[in-house]
Amino acid sequence: MRDILLFVVLLTALMIGWWLGRRGSTKRGRRIEQQGTVTLSRDYFVGLNFLLTEQPDRAIETFVQALEVNSETIDTHITLGNLFRSRGEADRAVKIHQNLLARPALSSRQSDQVQLELARDFMRLGVLDRAEGLLDSLIKRCHDEQILNAARRLLIELFEQEKEWQAALDVASTQRLRDDPPLQRAAANWLCELALEEFERGHIASGQKKLKQALSTCPSSVRSHWIQAERFHALGRYRDEIKALSKIPQQDREFSPIILERLGRSYDMLDDEPGLLAHLDRALEQTPSISALLMRAQRGLPREGLEATAKKLSERLERFPNLRGVVYLAALDVERIDPQHQAERLLMQTLHHHLERLVQRDPRFVCRHCGFQIERLYWHCPQCHDWETIKPIDEFPPRSEAPHAAH
Ligand SMILES: [Zn+2]
After folding, report:
1. Is residue 218 a known part of a binding site?
2. CA distance 404 to 407
3. The LapB rubredoxin metal binding domain covers which part of the protein (predicted)?
C-alpha cells in the first residue's frame, strides 16, 4: 500500500514538475521548451520501464533524480522523504531532506519544517546526537508555534530514549505542563525515574523530594503512589504502605489488581489476616475485580472452609462468568473429593490441569492505548511510548452490579 502511495506521489510530482517546466519554458522560448520536455520525458520513461520490469528501487531512484526542486514542489519532496522514512528507508529520507535544506528556494518556515523532518530521519536511524543538534537549533530560532511544539515533543521523545529524564523535564517547562495532562503524567514518571536513581545511590532525602514533586506534578499518577508504598515498606511502615496502595484504585480502577499481592504482604507483616479480609471485602464493594474476588476466596479459605468458600465463589461466578474463577473452583473441587474416590479425583485433577493451561496462555497486561500485550507491568509502553497505559487484563463486574459482588 505504501509502495503504491509512494509511486502516486512520485508520478504526481513528476507531472507537476513537467507542467511547471513546460509553462516556464513557454515564456522563455520554444527551443528551451523542447529540450526540457525531452529530458523529463526520458527520465519519466526510464523510471516507468524500471517499474514495469519490477525493479521498484531503481524506478524510485530515477524518479527522484527527475524531480525538480522549486517552491511549488518542496512539499512533495518533504512528503516523499517522509514516505521513505515510514517504509524503513530513513537513509534515503536523509538524502532527500538534506538535499532540500541546501536549496535557496526554501522559505524560513519550509526550512524549519525540513529540519524537523531531518531530525526525525536521524532519530529513526538511531543517530541521536545529530537529531538533538538539529532540534536544539530549531527550538532556539523557530517562531512557528506548530513546528516548535512538534520539535519539543520530538526532543522529549529523544531524551526519553536516552533516559535523560532531567533534560526532558527542562524541555517541558512548567507553563506547558499546566495545560497538558498527558505531559503531566509523563513528567511525573520522569520524576519517578529520577527518584529511583537517587534511592539507588542511597540519596534518600533527595529521592523523596523528587517523589513529592512527582505527586504534585500529577496527583493521579499511579506510579508515584506505587513507589511511595514501596518506600514505606522498606522503612517498615506497613500501615502507611497500605494507605499509599489504597490510593491506586481510586486514581485508576483498572490498576486495582496490581496492588493485591503487596497488600497481602503488608497485612502479613502486621500479622493482621482479619484486616486483610475486611480490606478485600471493601475492595469488592468499591472497585471489584476478578483478581480481588480470587484473593478473597484464597485468603478466606482457612477460616471459612472449603464448602463455604466454594459455594460463595460459585454464586459469584453465576453472575460474572470468568475462566480464572472456574479454574480456582475446580482446584477447590479437587480438594473436596474424598481421596478414597481416586478415579473421580483424577478426573477433576485432569480437568483443573487443562483449564489452568488455558488461563496461563493469556497475556497478563495490555497497553490501553496501542494494544501491545505483555507478561509483566511496564510503566512506559515499549510500542507507543505512552506512560501508565499498560494495565492488567482483568475482568470487572459492571459498576451497577458491583455491590452484589461483595455478598
Ligand atoms: Zn502502547
Report:
1. no
2. 6
3. 365-392
Residue-wise pLDDT tens digits, 10-46? 566 556 555 545 544 444 444 433 444 444 556 666 6
In a domain, 318, yes or no: yes
Q: Any binding-site annotation on 381?
A: yes
Task: Say how many domains are in the chain.
Answer: 1
Report the separation in Å between the CA atom of 25 and the middle of ligand 1, taken as the mean of its atom positions.
52
Rounded to the nearest whole angstrom, what is the distance from the C-alpha of residue 240 to the centroid of ligand 1?
32
Q: How would DSSP label each residue in 298-348?
A: HHHHHHH-HHHHHHHHHHHHHHS--HHHHHHHHHHHHHHS-TT-HHHHHHH
Is the residue at 354 inside a domain? yes
192 is in an annotated binding site: no
Q: Is 371 exposed, middle or buried (0-12, 13-18, 19+ CB in 10 A)?
A: exposed
Per residue in 270-320, pLDDT tens? Answer: 999 999 999 999 998 888 888 898 999 999 999 999 999 999 888 888 877
332 is in which domain, residue-wise?
A: 305-361
Residue 128 Cα to ligand 1 midpoint, Å, equals 22
Query: Does residue 328 form part of some domain?
Result: yes
Residue 371 Cα to ligand 1 midpoint, Å, equals 6
CA–CA gap between residue 8 and residue 344 (Å, rounded): 68
Residue entry with cell 516556464: 24
